[in-house]
Specification:
- With about 150 residues, the protein is α+β, with helices and mostly antiparallel strands.
- It has one domain: Sufe protein. Chain: A (Alpha-Beta Complex).
- It is about 45% helix and about 20% strand.
- The protein has 4 helices and 4 strands; from the N terminus they run H-E-E-E-H-H-H-E.
- The chain has a 4-stranded mixed β-sheet with strand order 3-2-1-4, covered by helices on one side.
- The longest helix is centred in the last third of the chain and has 18 residues.
- The structure holds zinc ion.
- Zinc ion (ZN) binds next to helix 2.
Length: about 150
């Protein structure tokens, strides 16, 4: 990765960590799932508002490291207006980007989420980045129990 691109990515991550998007409770949420990453101590509660199979609103509460906060902030932005199927596709792409073996992963496919591609070089941080998405996956499957990355 080019250094200037890496700097840009880090700037986006810092920005989302400093000013998390959709950091609020949805009182009448249709889905609410708690996620926990014991390796790092990241905790979040994800809220989704659904209209049929479309995610009309997404928000979160909780506290975690910069990577986990930026990841869930970006995720709540990007899944808004998406169908469950589209969100599931993004989950799989995000998972492939952060944990897959493909060196030539197409970053354009994931849009803004590409800023987190660098975590694949830091195995200890991968779960910080994927916690939000595992929690979303549980919410889309309508699970009620809290999820843990361990
Ligand atoms: Zn973390």
């Amino acid at each position: 990765m080019f250094d200037d691109l890496r700097d840009l990515y880090q700037e986006v991550i810092f920005d989302h960590n400093r000013n998390p998007r959709n950091f609020r409770i949805i009182e009448d949420a249709d889905r609410k799932v708690e996620g926990f990453n014991p390796l790092c101590g990241d905790r979040l509660t994800l809220y989704l508002k659904m209209a049929g199979n479309v995610i009309t609103d997404a928000s979160f509460q909780g506290s975690g490291c910069a990577i986990s906060t930026a990841s869930v902030s970006l995720m709540t932005e990007i899944v808004k207006g998406k169908t469950e199927q589209e969100a599931d596709t993004l989950f799989k792409q995000f998972h492939e980007m952060t944990t897959g073996k493909d060196e030539h992963f197409n970053l354009e496919a994931v849009g803004k989420l590409a800023v987190l591609a660098g975590v694949r070089e830091y195995p200890a941080r991968v779960k910080c980045a994927t916690l939000a998405w595992h929690t979303l996956d549980a919410a889309l499957k309508n699970q009620q129990e809290a999820i843990s990355t361990e």
